[in-house]
């Protein structure tokens, strides 16, 4: 197994082991995942959160950055400690785009790329605001009709495109009502995977490299200033005690 050496911003070297041949990872194809993939030379299949689950369950990938909602339905999975895609307050890239007052909304189009965010918007309306609009499944992420949920890079592009409609940031709304961080995705693999410890070690070290190299990662993006702000001000990559409390609350709200 070869080692890939990366320079940190203070010129120290970090070593990220590459995974052995034949091991494949599955990750979301969005900007927010880039720091978690830093230095990984193995194959990474990138797609939307809703499609990652089928890749994982069909064993086309050995580990996947799965949607929190999907993880909570499958307690038999091994979840990698202290790695997540989450937020503590505004997340910027998980939104409801709408017009008029919230209480007048009768129908919300869900994002076909999402599982967790689609459940989160239901909790926000039904549990936090005591509102019960109709939630409509759609197969078209480019559906122009409002109100609608948008996640990931399409949500960023929508906001950066100068829209004049109202934006409800789902991470911010969750934090406003709960005071807790929200976790959208975590790395998972099967408990009996023969190379479990190797995969976990590589993912944890990739995260360490990625967090130290956020400025370099941002520099390669089309909008480096925004990307660095996104990596450092909006997205959180740790999953500590408060994040676990947020996960437990989300799970309990799903059940009630």
Secondary-structure map with pairings?
Blueprint: E1 3-7, E2 13-17, E3 24-28, E4 43-47, H1 49-57, E5 63-67, H2 68-72, E6 77-79, E7 85-87, E8 94-98, E9 107-109, H3 116-128, E10 134-136, E11 148-151, H4 152-160, E12 166-169, H5 170-178, E13 182-190, H6 196-212, H7 214-219, H8 224-234, H9 241-255
Helix pairs in contact: 3-5
Strand content is 15-25%
Q: What low-confidence regions span 5 or more consecutive residues with pLDDT below 50? A: 1-14
Structural class: alpha/beta
Mean pLDDT: 91
CATH architecture of the largest domain: 3-Layer(aba) Sandwich
Our count of helices gives: 9
The total count of strands amounts to 13
What is the CATH topology classification name of the largest domain? D-Maltodextrin-Binding Protein, domain 2
Provide the number of structural domains.
2
H-E string: EEEEHEHEEEEHEEHEHEHHHH
Q: In one word, what is the shape?
A: globular
Largest sheet: 6 strands, mixed
Describe the 3D structure.
This protein has 256 residues and is α/β, with parallel strands linked by helices. The protein folds into two domains: 3-86 and 181-243, Periplasmic binding protein-like II (D-Maltodextrin-Binding Protein, domain 2), CATH 3.40.190; 94-178, 3-Layer(aba) Sandwich (D-Maltodextrin-Binding Protein, domain 2), CATH 3.40.190. It contains nine helices and 13 strands. The strands form four sheets. Strands 3, 4, 5, 6, 7 and 13 form a six-stranded mixed sheet that branches. A three-stranded antiparallel sheet has the order 11-8-12, sandwiched between helices. Strands 1-2 form a two-stranded antiparallel sheet. β1 and β2 (13-17) form a beta hairpin. α3 (116-128) crosses α5. The model is unreliable at 1-14 (pLDDT under 50).
